[in-house]
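Bumping my old thread because nobody answered last time. Still need a sequence for this structure:
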């Protein structure tokens, strides 16, 4: 499984760091929505879903967390702990976010507006979706 992690170029000087992200340039899609999670309690696992179409870039802009990526065949855990790193998550990837530090802020850039009908929240349904995609259905 290929993990696509972007390393954004900070504009650093003696005053500190600044990261700027533009759609189609730093983010590989049109940004239709931005959301973020914070105050995530210890031992909480968020996500636990895939999408039919949505693409995302996840940036842990403060603190740290881990992302489990699962393409239906293989799983990988990606730690996010730098504000200049962005993890690309394709639609057909089951994702779980966990091990949040108390100060973690996880920022998400999404290619679509919120649409509950785009979610695949059942793991067996996800496996079926991946299999059908592979078979070209
Ligand atoms: P949820 O899908 O449970 O978050 P996650 O899977 O990332 O842990 O979303 C939590 C609530 O927020 C749920 O009621 C739906 C709502 N929500 C929106 O209204 N807009 C959004 O963009 C997102 C991501 C969630």
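Sorry it took so long. Here it is:
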């Amino acid at each position: 499984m290929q993990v696509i992690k972007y390393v954004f170029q900070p504009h650093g000087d003696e005053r500190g760091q600044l990261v700027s992200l533009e759609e189609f340039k730093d983010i590989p899609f049109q940004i239709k929505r931005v959301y973020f999670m914070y105050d995530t309690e210890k031992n909480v696992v968020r996500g636990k879903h895939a999408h039919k179409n949505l693409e995302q870039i996840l940036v842990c802009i403060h603190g740290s967390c881990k992302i489990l990526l699962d393409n239906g065949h293989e799983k990988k855990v990606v730690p996010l702990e730098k504000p200049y790193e962005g993890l690309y998550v394709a639609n057909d990837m089951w994702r779980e976010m966990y091990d949040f530090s108390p100060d973690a802020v996880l920022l998400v850039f999404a290619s679509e507006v919120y649409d509950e009908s785009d979610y695949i929240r059942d793991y067996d349904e996800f496996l079926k979706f991946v299999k059908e995609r592979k078979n070209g259905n």
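The pocket of thymidine-5'-diphosphate is lined by residues 33, 35, 46-47, 49, 114 (CB under 6 Å). Let me know if any region looks off to you.
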